[in-house]
From TrEMBL:
This is Splicing factor cactin central domain-containing protein. It comes from Hyalella azteca (Amphipod). InterPro entries: Cactin_central. GO terms for biological process: mRNA cis splicing, via spliceosome. GO terms for cellular component: cytoplasm; spliceosomal complex. It holds the Pfam family Cactin_mid. Keywords: Coiled coil. Residues 137-278 form the Splicing factor cactin central domain.
């Protein structure tokens, strides 16, 4: 019962659609009629091309409009001699078209494989080039680092030479005297005893401007001297100099009398001088210098000086 009703409804809709279509045909103009027939023909031709296995890229080609200038582009080409050679000349037109579609599909799949392999090769080549470029950058970075290290060593050696010249000429700066504590050259007295003065004693009497200049010189040595032991030495000196700069700035900002200010300026603060860690580094440097000699050299510093070590 329900099936009969559905079938009757479907027939009724088809009849209405057909009647509407006939009505449109009756009132359409000649131009509309030609356009309708052309669209119908194009739709039919598109379906035929899809059935033949044409790609979507070529579906819009016609006999009159195609990049090959072929007026028989839409016609099925029959290579009779080849069919005779293959022994299939007796095939019908439909069978030949079916056979051609199978070959076109096979060619299309093969072309897709070729494109895929080409993309894979291009990707592999790009990866190889990126790897080579990365290795080249790493080599250049390593070479630049080596050049930079050599340049720093050269600048450090030049700074030490200038410092030694100033010391010999009697116009040594504070940084020249402090740099001698980690110099590779150890000067001995005529009795074979190595005299060592605490580095902070060279800061006595320096003004605020002198200490600020010294701080800049220390930064230069910290940048050029990459020896880890020497870095400890310069770091300790930095702490001491910064503390002195802070104390002088506090003194200058205070409202105390000139006499009180003068009484406070007597060198490094005793609390700092008593526990300064630079002395420990000097002791280790002294011992290292002494070990380089051919004979035992008495050291004026006792082993108790090593107790405040890190």
């Amino acid at each position: 019962m329900t099936r009969n009703l559905l079938e009757a409804e479907r027939l009724r809709q088809l009849a209405e659609k057909k009647k509407k279509k006939e009505l449109l045909k009756a009132i359409e103009t000649p131009e509309e009629k030609r356009l309708r027939r052309l669209q119908k023909k194009e739709l039919k031709e598109r379906k035929r091309k899809e059935k033949m296995g044409w790609d979507s890229e070529y579906l819009h080609y016609t006999n009159a409009d195609n990049p090959y200038g072929d007026n028989n582009l839409l016609e099925t080409f029959v290579w009779k001699e080849k069919l005779l050679k293959e022994g299939v000349a007796d095939l019908s037109k439909e069978e030949i078209e079916k056979r051609n579609r199978a070959k076109m599909e096979e060619n299309r799949l093969e072309l897709e494989k070729v494109k895929k392999r080409r993309l894979e090769r291009e990707l592999e080549r790009a990866e190889r080039e990126a790897l080579v470029e990365l290795e080249q950058r790493q080599r250049e970075a390593a070479q630049f680092s080596q050049f930079s290290k050599q340049e720093d060593n050269f600048q450090l050696e030049q700074a030490r030479i200038r410092s030694q010249i100033r010391v010999e000429d009697g116009r040594a700066k504070p940084i020249d005297l402090l740099a001698q504590y980690i110099s590779s050259e150890c000067e001995l007295t005529s009795t074979g005893v190595l005299h060592v003065h605490e580095p902070y004693t060279h800061l006595t009497g320096l003004t605020l401007n002198d200490l600020e200049d010294l701080m800049e010189d220390i930064k230069v040595y910290q940048q050029l001297d990459r020896d880890s032991k020497n870095q400890w030495y310069w770091s300790d000196l930095t702490i001491i100099v910064l503390d002195e700069i802070r104390r002088l700035k506090m003194r200058d900002a205070a409202t105390d009398t000139a006499a009180t200010s003068a009484s406070q300026r007597h060198g490094i603060h005793s609390a700092v001088a008593g526990e300064v860690s630079v002395l420990v580094l000097c002791c280790s440097q002294t011992q290292r210098c002494c070990r380089k000699g051919d004979r035992a050299i008495p050291v004026l510093l006792s082993n108790t000086a090593l107790l405040p070590a890190r």
